[in-house]
Write a structure and sequence with these properties.
32% of the residues lie in helices and 28% in strands. The radius of gyration is 34 Å and the shape is globular. The protein has three domains: 203 residues, Cytochrome Bc1 Complex, Chain A, domain 1 (2-Layer Sandwich), CATH 3.30.830; 199 residues, Metalloenzyme, LuxS/M16 peptidase-like (Cytochrome Bc1 Complex, Chain A, domain 1, 2-Layer Sandwich), CATH 3.30.830.10; 214 residues, Lipoprotein localisation LolA/LolB/LppX (outer membrane lipoprotein receptor (LolB), chain A), CATH 2.50.20. It has 737 residues and is of the alpha+beta class. Helix 2 packs across helix 5, helix 10 packs across helix 13 and helix 10 packs across helix 15.
Length: 737
């Protein structure tokens, strides 16, 4: 490792001392004798030498800088104190007294590949909600204040395979850091506001995902390589985020975060024996009674090779990504494929870097690597960027270099340089002891062994040119996947000149909208089963069918932007679809009436007929009443189907639908969502969070209802009283104030 760190300053010094060619000087004026104009006379003609010099030949650089490199030093994973707690949590402690700081990370073997297909993004939302949602003792804001006061940073991350929660603190704050870390991990509150902010932030990212050409290229490359329906290639859409509720986050945490399958790594300035005692007494109380085993799903990548193009007219640079499927880390050809990637485009000295050295006007950027491969096949990725006017030429150059690369084995010196660059990148990435320990435990957790990095290093140093040449043979034209993102109006020549069919990429973002009802027998049967469970949980089918009218009084708050005001709301309903809603607000009373045919609204300013958006809102209110939803399988104009997991959709007519998200233990609705209309023909995602269910006249109803519009809180109501079959008349409901 020390030898590696010495290479950089030595190389820079050698580079600075290189003799650079002197600038050619202009030729001095020449004096010539010209033919005499008359006999005996002499004319002196002065001719100046040309100030134009011949273009310099491209410089040939020696990327070794005249230095000889010794064999790359091996590194070993430190073996500190590794033990298990009674609850099964594995702990790895490593003393490191060089700096007065401590770093820790908890690794949980569940990641984005474990997301349900209809709830893509759930693992990510869960990890961020775990970090930001507060604890039983400290709400989210107070938790942040406590962390800041102690100088502790706390963060959560999710990869395809691993969810992690990590902390960093000065050594004098270790006790406080461990206490807060323990509470976040074992006593998360998953506050509603934090959950809404996280999900809302992800919704914003969906809407802005087409800004960066490089991110578009990476996303579309994964989608085309692994399949758009695969966890390795799917996109998180509005629909997926709208399917995720707080109850899903709680369930994911309770069933996936388990001490028996997790590893806690702590490295830094501490006494290992003393910290072992503290960890044992503090973290042994973490229990996960609902935890289940969730192995990584088996995936079959379905690449779509060819030239995929996203015409992004506002792009000022082009992003190009070329690659193909590679081997898994457990396969013997993995090291050869990694070396091939570095040999071809991995930094200075690579084939692509040399080929582009004389084309400075392209302003090209290149990088190549082997990505992933721990559990699923890796991907060979050659990433490029350039000025738009050279996009087609760059792609043609890359394809020509690939064919040349496949034609003959590499030189021994070139291979050694590529291996050195690959090993240097690995060494720099895992130079911090904490990072090396975490990677060792991560590879052990997913089944590759704790010494995976050392094994990869040994495999790299034993490679021969023939090994790498065999790996490059798989880079056939038929296997290559190319993704180009840029503005076609700025290209020097059309992409069709590359000689490959161009497959257009659709960058449109699907709007949030109810899905088309599923009509297959299994979805219909599962939807019916959920409704039957809901009917039983609410009081039974007979009780629900006997309801003729309903009266409810609630109090709470309504939000108008950042401010709120008190509200009292009285709802009256008469079968089959007449609704009267009275709201007492600080500025006066508002009354809404709708009977399926006629609708009006009375405000302090006067009486008016309901507009089309208001009628739609009234119909939405009628559709989502819990005691009418429960009977949807017996209602003629409604269809019921399951959308997977604990979600059903109830559709009424061609354009109205509500999704019901059940609490899997109680079979009662935890959340309802539907699209409604606002002024200006804007669609609004409305969510009703239902909680604190109580029995009224033999029927269970929620007594806390929080309504959100596009993820922002709109009303928060507590039900004061509820009555069924109190004798409400149509005349009473239609009376105008």
């Amino acid at each position: 490792m020390k030898a590696l760190l010495l290479l950089l300053p030595l190389a820079l010094t050698a580079w600075a001392q290189q003799t650079r060619p002197a600038k050619p000087k202009a030729s001095p004026p020449r004096t010539e004798a010209a033919p005499s104009a008359t006999p005996g006379s002499k004319v002196i003609v002065i001719r100046r030498g040309s100030t134009r010099t011949a273009p310099p030949k491209p410089a040939v650089f020696d990327y070794s800088f005249g230095l000889s490199f010794p064999p790359f030093p091996t590194f070993s994973v430190p073996r500190g104190d590794r033990f298990k707690l009674p609850n099964g949590l594995t702990v790895h402690l490593q003393e490191n007294r060089r700096l007065p700081a401590v770093r820790g990370i908890l690794l949980v073997p569940t990641g984005s590949v474990n997301d349900p297909p209809e709830k893509a993004g759930l693992a990510y939302v869960t990890a961020l909600s775990l970090r930001s949602g507060g604890t039983g003792a400290l709400p989210g804001q107070r938790l942040d204040e406590a962390l800041d006061l102690a100088g502790v940073s706390l963060s959560a991350e999710v990869s395809q395979l691993i969810s992690s929660l990590s902390f960093a603190a000065p050594s004098e704050s270790l006790a406080r850091a461990l206490s807060l870390f323990h509470d976040v991990l074992t006593q998360p509150a998953f506050e509603d506001d934090a959950f809404d902010a996280i999900r809302g932030g992800l919704r914003d990212r969906v809407g802005s995902r087409n800004y960066d050409p490089d991110l578009i290229a990476a996303r579309e490359f994964s989608s085309a390589l692994y399949g758009a329906s695969s966890p390795l290639g799917w996109r998180v859409e509005y629909e997926h985020l709208d399917n995720i509720g707080r109850e899903d986050v709680v369930n994911f945490y309770q069933t996936r975060y388990a001490p028996s399958s997790s590893v806690l790594v702590i490295e830094g300035d501490f006494d290992a024996a003393q910290l072992k005692s503290t960890i044992t007494s503090q973290f042994s109380d973490w229990a996960a009674p609902r935890a289940q085993s969730h192995p990584y799903p088996k995936l079959n990548p379905s690449p779509v090779p060819g030239l995929h193009f996203a015409d992004k007219r506002d792009a000022r640079r082009s992003a190009v990504l070329v690659g193909l499927l590679g081997p898994q880390a457990s396969e013997p050809t993995f090291a050869a494929s990694l070396a091939a990637a570095f040999l071809f485009g991995g930094g200075p000295g690579s084939r692509l870097h040399k080929a582009l050295s004389s084309k400075q006007q392209w302003e090209a950027q290149i990088a190549a690597n082997l990505v992933g491969g721990d559990v699923y096949p890796a991907s060979v990725q050659i990433k490029l960027g350039c000025r738009p006017s050279f996009t087609t030429e760059l792609l043609q150059l890359v394809l020509a270099e690939i064919e040349s690369f496949r034609a003959a084995p590499p030189l021994e010196t070139d291979l050694n340089d590529a291996i050195a660059r690959a090993q240097a990148e690995i060494a720099l990435q895992y130079q911090p002891v904490a990072a090396l320990l975490a990677e060792s435990e991560r590879t052990a957790l997913i089944g590759l062994g704790a010494d995976r990095l050392l094994a990869l290093q040994r495999q790299l140093t034993s490679l021969t040119p023939a090994d790498v040449h065999r790996a490059a043979q798989g880079w056939t034209p038929d296997a290559l996947l190319m993704v180009v993102v840029g503005s076609s109006t700025l290209f020097d020549s059309p992409l069709t000149s590359v000689g490959r069919p161009v497959l257009p990429i659709d960058l449109s973002i699907p709007s949030p909208k109810p899905v088309t009802p599923r009509t297959d027998p299994e979805s219909i049967s599962r939807g019916q089963d959920w409704l039957k469970r809901m009917q039983q949980a609410m009081g039974g089918l007979d009780k629900l069918q006997s309801v003729k009218d309903w009266l409810s009084v609630a109090e709470g708050s309504v939000w108008m932007g950042p401010t709120s005001m008190k509200i009292k709301e009285t709802n009256k309903w008469l079968a089959p679809h007449t609704l009267r809603q009275e709201q007492d607000l600080p500025y006066g009373r508002s009354v809404l009436f709708y009977n399926g045919e006629v609708g009006w609204i009375a405000r302090p300013t006067g009486l008016a007929q309901m507009s089309a958006p208001m009628i739609r809102q009234a119909e939405d209110e009628l559709l989502q009443l819990p005691f009418t939803l429960a009977l949807s399988n017996l209602t003629q104009d409604r269809t019921v189907c399951s959308l997977g997991a604990n979600i059903i959709q109830i559709t009424s007519g061609p354009d109205k639908a509500v999704r019901v998200y059940f609490d899997e233990q109680t079979a009662l609705p935890a959340r309802l969502t539907y699209l409604s209309e606002a002024t200006g023909n804007r669609s609004v995602m409305v969510e009703h969070a239902l909680s604190n269910w109580r029995e009224f006249d033999g029927i269970r109803m929620p007594t806390r209802i929080i309504v959100k519009h596009n993820g922002r809180k709109f009303t928060d109501l507590t039900i004061q009283s509820t009555r069924f079959n109190s004798g409400i008349s149509a005349l009473d409901l239609g009376r105008r104030p």
